[in-house]
Amino acid sequence: MIIGTGIDIAEIARFEKFVKEDNQSLFGRLFTRFELDYCFAKRFSARPLAMRFAAKEAFLKALGTGLRDGINWLDIEVRNDELGKPHLYIKGKAADQMKIAGAEKSHLSLSDDGGFAIAMVILEA
Fold first, then answer.
1. Distances in Å between the alpha carbon of 48 and those of 36, 40, 55, 96?
2. Number of H helices, E strands in the chain
């Protein structure tokens, strides 16, 4: 049974600006060390950063809570399996709220085109 769905879009140029400014303070609030290592290993790091941000926003929309009840950006991590398929690793207060909502699984799809990154999340019981 589907508990919630969320979609978000992020402008890649916005993250290009953050990369050029070397905005470490912002990156540290939004992304885990694992995510930052993954993104900055890429030639164009703004694209995967924008995709991960869109994924986090889409997850919060699917959960229906936003950033409240103690949830923070670092509770939501985007990882890739050995084939490159993205998935969410949820911890902390976000995991607690997911359990309260009755969601046991999350599904994530990421794409980009025309300077935008898009993410869709489905939470399932």
1. 9, 9, 10, 27
2. 5, 5
The long-range contacts involving 31-36, CB below 8 angstroms and separated by at least 24 positions, are: 31/73, 31/74, 32/74, 32/77, 34/77, 34/79, 35/77, 35/78
Q: Quote the pTM value.
A: 0.96
Q: Are 108 and 119 in contact (CB under 8 A)?
A: yes
Dig out the tokens for 70 from the structure.
């103690």
Domains and CATH numbers, the chain: 2-124 (3.90.470.20)
Instruction: Give kind and range of the element (H or E) at residue 24.
Output: helix 24-30
Q: How far apart are CA 69 and CA 100, in angstroms?
A: 12
H/E element, 106: strand 105-113
Residues 75-115 pLDDT 10s: 999 999 999 999 999 999 999 999 999 999 999 999 999 99
- The span from the CA of 18 to the CA of 34, in Å, is 18
Q: How is residue 75 annotated by DSSP?
A: G
